Amino acid sequence: MSETTGSPPQSATGPEQPVAGVAGVLPSPVSAQAGSSPMQLSPERTANVARLAARRFPDPSKVNANWWVLAILLLALAFVSSLLAAEVTAFSYIHRLAAAAAALLDVIALTTFAHVILLWYQSKITEPDPSAADPAQETVNFRQRGLKAAVIGQDGRASTSKTQVVLWTAAVVWALIDLLLLARAYPSRNLFTATITSNWRPEYLVLLGLPVAAAATAKTVVSGSNNGRGPVPGDGGTEVPGRTTRVYKRHPVRPGVKGFIKGMAELITADDGTVAWPDLQYVAFTLITLVYFVTQLLAQPQQGLPPVPAALLTLMGVSVSGYTASKIVETKGQWPDDGQTQVTEG
Question: What are the sequence ranges of the domains in the chain?
Fold first, then answer.
């Protein structure tokens, strides 16, 4: 008996049949009508339909032109607003708010422009990846595109330590731009210069350095786990009685996970979705210190970068230490040396 190829015939009143070659993925867009002949798709058309049905994210080898338009518009708007804020000579409350808003727009415009540049660069170096068909790997690749890689770890999840570095870097850049825009309106006109010279506050070396140290430590202990082999996939291996070795495993992000809210949740949760208390404490104290920093700068910009109380610095130090210690303990594992022992959940 010979085999037949192509789409199975459809009855005049029967249900829609799946497109040939992508059964269970995408239904046929055209139903067979009464008295009409069954629809036939060419192999090329069938392949295109299957590819479109499987694609969950934008093509990494291309950059949407809308990104360039958005970046240019934001840069132009930031330039105009900054120019207007810098020209004002009245050191009033309204002007201080306007200068702070213009500085925030500058940070957003520069961030967007850097994101587009990275997207363009990554599109030029992107080569066909055999693992692109893997939904989990496709999700990781999407979440690490552009400037998002600054806060996304190797497992495709939002990194708590990386996010702290980005937050404090952006906050200090925003503050310096704000003070620069207010320099003309301040009576002595040395607001920005004094901030970075005689009025520089050493505690900001701690606020900027602690998150960097935590991020570097976390990356080192994760990549150096299992005798330098790094974490293994969470679904690997079974236990062999009497020959068990504790190996650090890390579950990659689930396929299709994306969005800002989910990324925020990943900052304070473990791989299994439960609350990670060291991460939650780290994020909480960082947000409290950031809120204090912003409100003090808006209220008294003549002081330059606001002084940070010792209590907040201590809480930041304690939370960073707890986060780092939890990473060291969590990633502690050893790869079996005999080549036969199967790994078990760490």
Answer: 60-150, 156-250+258-346
